[in-house]
Amino acid sequence: MAPFDVIAGLKNELDFRLVSDSFVTLFWSRSVLKDTTEWLLDHGYLVVWIDTSGWRDDTDMHRDFADGMEFPKHFDESFDGLNDCLGDVVAYEYGSDPDATGLVLVLLGYDGFLGGNPESARTLLDIFARQAREGALIGHRMMCLVQSDDPYLEIGTIGASPVWWNDAEWQATKRGVIAPRVGV
């Protein structure tokens, strides 16, 4: 797939908007996420769903991530191994399809893992963002959509880019937030 063209940016296409600031985007509403992934599927993207709500530690993360991304059996369950395998995904060796428009990784219930394992949760997203940036350089579109059940969730900068709420929910009121979180 070719990189985005000028027309995509001018037309403000959904996929262009999702990656224009960061390769990782937050979602709170599962219905907004569903509508987004349906649009992406309709436009030829391969969508990989991983439910992270049961992740308690790095072992859970590496196991489910390897299964979802179709990593080889010899996958070294470490962040170095994850980085290497995602590099292979960028090169279409597995876990993606060169005939697809791009790859969309959807992580459901990520706030639980982030709350219990903040360093690992941020490292995973950082590795994905860096590899997605490499993919963009060769025309392999990759994005990560992170669903949180916590409407206050803020991840900060990932892959040297901040993680923002999607454009349908960027206003806190769209996520059901009526007042700022106290004591944060």
Can you tag this structure with a few keywords?
184 residues, alpha/beta, Barnase, Chain D, 5-stranded parallel sheet, two-stranded antiparallel sheet, 7 helices, 41% helix, globular
Describe, in plain words, how this protein is organized in 3D:
The chain is of the alpha/beta class and 184 residues long. The protein has a single domain (14-169), classed as Barstar-like (Barnase, Chain D, 2-Layer Sandwich), CATH 3.30.370.10. Helix content is 41%, strand content 16%. It is built from seven helices and seven strands; from the N terminus they run ααβαβααβααββββ. The protein has helices at 6-11, 14-20, 30-42, 58-68, 79-90, 110-116, 118-137, and strands spanning 24-27, 46-51, 102-108, 141-147, 157-158, 161-162, 164-165. The strands form two sheets. The chain has a five-stranded parallel sheet, with helices on both faces. Helix 5 (79-90) runs parallel beside helix 7 (118-137) and helix 6 packs across helix 7 (118-137). The chain is globular.
What is the secondary structure topology, with strand pairs?
Layout: H1 6-11, H2 14-20, E1 24-27, H3 30-42, E2 46-51, H4 58-68, H5 79-90, E3 102-108, H6 110-116, H7 118-137, E4 141-147, E5 157-158, E6 161-162, E7 164-165
Parallel strand pairs: 1-4, 1-7, 2-3, 3-4
Antiparallel strand pairs: 5-6
What is the structure about, briefly put?
The protein is an alpha/beta fold and 184 residues long. Helices cover 41% and strands 16% of the residues.
**Global structural class:** alpha/beta
User: Domains counted in the coordinates: how many?
Assistant: 1
Q: Give the uncertain stretches in residue-range form.
A: none
Could you say what the CATH architecture is?
A: 2-Layer Sandwich
